[in-house]
Amino acid sequence: MGPAQVLFYMSNSRAGDAAGTWSSGREVAPHLFISRNRHCQRRTPLASSSSSLPPSPAPSVNSETGEGNGFFGSRVSLSMDPQVLIALGLSLVGGFSTSIGGLFVVLSHAPDLKMLGILQGFAAGLMLSISFFDLAHNALNTLGFLKGNVWFFVGALFFASIVNFIPEPSFVSRNEEKEDDGSNKDMTRKHQHQILFSGIITAVGISLHNFPEGMAVFLGSMKGLRVGVNLALAIALHNIPEGVAVALPVYFATRSKWQAFKLATLSGFAEPLGVVFVAYLFPSNLSPEILEGLLGSVGGVMAFLTLHEMLPLAFEYAGHKQAVQAVFVGMALMSASLYFLEISLPEEMSM
C-alpha cells in the first residue's frame, strides 16, 4: 500500500466504524480525517459534545478546533493514546520480523560462494519484484502511465549519473588484481566491498518499502483490532525473507554475525516509523501525487542498483543459469507475498 492509497482510504472513510474506530465506538483523533483533494487539506473535525483527546502539547495548535501549524489538527501524546500504542506495537511485530530472517543467516552454517551467488540472485528477485510490482505499479496506478514512468526513470537516471560521476573507490591495488588469476575461491577486498554494498542497498530499499506498510498497519488497527492483528501477522511473514536478503551479504562481507543481524533488524525499523509519521507528523500540504511519484523514483533507483550491483555478483558466483533461476524464484516469492498481504487488507485499503 502506497501512502497515497493510505490518504485516500483515510479521506473516503465515514464517521464511525468505517472511519477507523474501535468496536467500542471510540472516536479517532480529528487529525485523521482528510478531504480528498490534491493538497490533502484538513477537514473540520467531527463534532462531539465531549472529546476524550488531551490538550495538544504544541502551543500553536488549538485542540478544540483542530487548527494546526502545518500538521493535521491537534497531536496527542503517545503515552495518552492507547489506540496508537497498540498500532505501534503491531507494527513492531511486523517490522522486526526481519530479525527472524537475520537469525536464519547467523545461526545456520555459512554457505560457500556458489550458494552466496544463488542467494544474491534470490535477493535481486525480491528487490526487482518490490520495484516493479509494488512501488512502480502504485505510481502508474495513481499518476497514470506517462507520469508514473517519468518518475520511475528519473530515479533510475539520477542514480545512474551518480554512479557514473562518482565511481565506487577501489579497495584492491593493481598488483593484487594481477596476482588474482580467477582460480582463488577467497573473496578479495574488492568483492567484500561489493557484497557489503549490495547488503546496504537491500537494507535501504526494504526500509523504504516497509515505511508505507507501517502506515497501513496503523490504519488497519484504527479500523479494528482484528484487522490490525491479521495485517501485522501477514507483514511479519512477508518480511522474513527480506531479513535473509539483508543479513546474508553483510555476513559474507564482514564475517560478523552481529553486524548481519543488526542491519537486518534495522531494516524493519521503518515500519513503526510509518505509524508515527501518519499518526502525528504527516504534513498537511504534502500532495499524495508527489509522495507516490517519489516512491516511484525510489523504485527506479532500486531497479538500477539491483541490475548494476546485485545481479553481476550473482552471475559471477553462481553462473548465469542458476542465478537467473534464483532471480525468478525470488520474484515469485515476493509477488506471492505481496498478493497475500493485499488480500489480508480490508477492501477499502487495497494496495
Automatic annotation (TrEMBL):
The way it spans or sits in the membrane comes to:
Multi-pass membrane protein
Q: Does the keyword Membrane apply?
A: yes
Membrane-spanning segments: 84-106, 118-136, 148-166, 195-211, 231-251, 263-282, 294-311, 323-341
Q: What's an example GO cellular component term for this entry?
A: membrane
Q: What GO molecular function annotation could you give as one example from this UniProt entry?
A: zinc ion transmembrane transporter activity
What InterPro entries does the annotation carry? ZIP (IPR003689)
Q: Pfam families in the record, alphabetically? A: Zip (PF02535)
**Top-level taxon:** Eukaryota
In terms of one coarse class, where is the protein primarily found?
A: membrane
Q: From the Swiss-Prot or TrEMBL record, state where the protein is found.
A: Membrane
| Keywords on record | Membrane, Transmembrane, Transmembrane helix
Which portions of the sequence form the region Disordered? 44-65
Protein name per Swiss-Prot or TrEMBL: Zinc transporter ZTP29
From which source organism is this entry?
Answer: Ensete ventricosum (Abyssinian banana)
